[in-house]
What we know:
The structure holds two protein chains of two kinds.
Chain A: H1 3-25, H2 36-53, H3 63-67, E1 68-73, E2 76-81, H4 88-95, E3 114-117, E4 120-123, E5 136-138, H5 150-157, H6 167-180, H7 186-192, H8 202-213, E6 222-225
Parallel strand pairs in A: 1-5
Antiparallel strand pairs in A: 1-2, 3-4, 3-5
Chain B: E1 29-31, H1 37-42, E2 47-50, E3 53-55, E4 61-65, H2 74-86, E5 93-97, H3 100-105, H4 125-147, E6 154-157, E7 160-163, E8 168-171, H5 172-175, E9 230-236, E10 243-247, H6 250-253, E11 258-265, E12 268-273, H7 276-285, E13 288-291, H8 300-309, E14 317-323, H9 326-332, E15 335-343, E16 355-360, E17 365-368, H10 374-385, E18 392-395, H11 411-421, E19 428-431, H12 434-439, E20 447-455, E21 461-470, H13 473-477, E22 509-516, H14 530-548, H15 553-558, H16 565-578, E23 588-597, E24 600-611, E25 614-625, H17 632-651, E26 656-657, E27 660-661, E28 679-684, H18 699-714, E29 729-730
Parallel strand pairs in B: 4-5, 9-19, 17-18, 21-22, 25-28, 25-29
Antiparallel strand pairs in B: 1-5, 2-3, 3-4, 6-7, 7-8, 9-12, 10-13, 11-12, 14-22, 15-20, 16-17, 16-19, 20-21, 23-24, 24-25, 26-27
Amino acid sequence: MDIGFLAIKIVVVGIHRLNWGAAIGGGAGHAPQGGTSGDLLLTAVKEWLKFISGYFLPVSISLRKLRMLSLNVNGRDHRVDVEPEMPLLWVLREQLGMTGTKFGCGIAQCGACTVHLDGQPVRSCSYPASAAQGRKVVTIEGLSPTSSHPVQMAWKALDVPQCGYCQSGQILAAAALLEAKPKPTDADIDEAMTNICRCGTYQRVRAAIHLAAGTGKGVGSVIHLAGLSPDRACGAGCSNMEGAKA
Amino acid sequence: MSTPTVTKGLTRRHFVVGAGAAAGGLALGFHMPAVAQSAAVSNASGQEVNAWVVVQPDDTCVVRVARAEMGQGTHTGLAQLVAEELECDWAKVVTQTVTPAQNLARKRVWRDMSTGGSRGIRGSQDYVRQGGAAARIMLLQAAAAEWGVSAAELRVDKGVIEHTASGRKLRYGQVAAATAKLTPPDVKTIVLKQPKDWKIAGKPMKRVDTAAKVNGQVNFGIDTQLPGMQYAAIMDCPVFGGKLVSFDAAAISARRGIKAVVRVDGSTVAVVADSWWRAKMALQDLPIVWDEGAHAQESSANIAIRLQAGLTASDNVFADTAIGDAPKAIAAASRRVEAVYGTPFVSHACMEPMNCTARITADRAEVWVSSQNAEAALAVVSRVSGLPLDKCEAYNPPLGGGFGRRGGAQDYVRQAATIAKQFPGVPIKLIWSREEDMAHDFFRPIGWCKLEAGLSDKGELDALRLRVSGQSINAFSSPHNISNGRDRRQLQGYYAEAGDAQLGYTVPNLMIEYAMRNTHVPVGAWRGVNTNQNGIYLECFMDEVARAAGRDPLEFRRALMAKHPKHLAVLNAAADKAGWGKPLPAGVFRGIAQFMGYGSYTAGVAEVSLQGNDVKVHRVVLATNCGHPLNPDQIAAQVEGSVAYGMDSLQSESTVLNGRITEKNFDTYPIARMFQMPQVETVIAPTYDFWGGVGEPTICVVAPCIMNAISAARGKPVRQLPLQREGLRIV
């Protein structure tokens, strides 16, 4: 092992530390989720130690083999030949062909790339793949074998998705929330669900989380019917508007 | 899924209808509702009854759709319309996306594929219903022939045909093959069902595409995977109108995975690699020399000065409406009100960044692209590749958001095809970074508006003069739509004529003008387009005038709307369901607005409280009359989405500095999040005498009703967006 490679590794570890902050911090100026930050930092330290230990491996191991990362994704082990700093998102999408995890912003802001790392929601666009070694990665494809996770069932019951692009991340964030807080309040949901949805499915996301949790709370779509009924349709020129008045 | 290929690069549940299949040799993508998946997957073939309907032996009814699904539910709605007339079992309906090449090959039997302007349902409801009805007639004819009876003796329910006299029954799947020998009915003889008899249309049916959107199986354009695929990251000159001078490819070409650095056009460079992340990281470090051109000193502040000058200038201005003599009446009025409003550039920021996968060989050019206009994508591919249309194809998977960004321009298709042309046979997946996406959008146009009102001594609105000074979408993208310098599109929602976007008020002296003032920034359609700004200008000003007149904002509006009963009815419906006039908790204030766009009437009431400069939006009640409400649950979804997208435009701005856009990601461009969302209530107030849009119309009242509530709360009008310019923020 030459000095150059050692230097690369040190740089890489530095990047890890920078990116963990972004990946953990999450959304819209909110406080990070309680506990998560500390746990992950602890894990980060362990990870660093694991990394340092790599320097003492026998020199006979080729550089290429050293570069191979071992990842456990949805219960299956994978070996991938990528740079340690390649974000987990791109390993999942391009190396493993698992495209359910989405690219949205690349800076851990939008949450479209959310996956579980040992059960914790992590924004994989800003999380180095090497830091996921030795942990259990769960993506939307692995949340349940038959789309029967309570969150997925609730999502289907309320027809939550519109375009659907952010929904893998929304669902994984919601599943992690319910793991941590089985009966979340609206305030819990506000704090944990910082994922961006441009279609504006937030109201149904909130309702579906309550439905999955069985809190008996949460309002989904509120629809008032007014106007005319089909058998009293507005006639020619629509002069008869009584029915349409409040 | 570690295999590198997916058959069509579309959804994992895509499969190919074999060339020998009765569907005419079409290779199409199927998207199935949960209930019908297994049945359809087990039997992909079937009998094409007509262009809209394929019936499989197990009674699965495949409904073909030509419009793009970007979340607005148009696939579900169009399937409902066909299924209603087909009289099939809704649980056995699946949808199938047609491609533009197939449409061309069949003389555009599926007609317009463009999906914008809230036209998906209203623009195709007649011919798709006729398609469903024609298929039903042929299936009944086939059964009648089988039994040797008259079709008039038959009835059908949920795809089961019954000869009532004998009790004999046949399922659609059993008779479909026999329709091949039949002549389709003359469309003029088809009588469509009355809305009062609808069983599927008009009902809150579940979406056909939800199941695949909760387990990662739905594949958007960005999820396309093809054998041997390479990836491209791209950068356009940050200053609009600038040029690419040179780049130092050698600085990055030795990096792992880098295949090439490509000059795409006069202002754009791309890095091609075996991984998008590698391409993007290398592009970030690529030394590039730009010629930033004539606009490198341009800024939002400069633009504002020029647009504000347009509010009083006399050049390049036209009056679209001039009733009575508004200037004179205002000058003579016993009380005058005047205000200037401003709305900024805003970005679409679709969750799925712009992308396109292209593969071009000497005799075939294909793209896989999430597009609102796959036919436009096809045309671009043909132009770039130099191949005729019949050697091109544009596969159109679902869109991760569109909102107008993925409409006619297809700039990313041009880029992907240009790059792919340099690598014959190699599929190239071009993905824009979020930064590129937000720096090179077609932004909602910037605008200013001056409004003047003259009140009579009784406090009635006697005169109104309104002038918009702002950028024109048509001037940027479709100048042929401007006749004699009169660009009416920028006055959307202020039109005198009935139909699409009519002004809802009658004012004795009324003048509405537009001063075209363009900038170097590309502009385009943004959900709701010009009804957004125009709704804000007029409806916020109406509150100012009502307050000056000492009137309740609702009562003040009602007095002007007697000649516009549909506008009035929707305003009344919103006010009624919101409890307008009823007591509110201490510190909570209401705002109201009404406007029209895309053939539908909308009104909204917001409830807001203010803590210092922090705005909390508690509740928004939105009413719409879209004529025929096709799916109440999906109307509610669109209304809820309009609130989120409308709230984004209250707090976001794409600022111009040094000729380029400053806000390039979500850390600087705030998007409404869960904690900011109010409770949304949807009021569906139909009149069943027209077909109006749903996806866009309600957004135009979201911002003004919230702004009016804020103004009521702080006792001072909100005239500038984003709210940060007024020292406010949404919490």
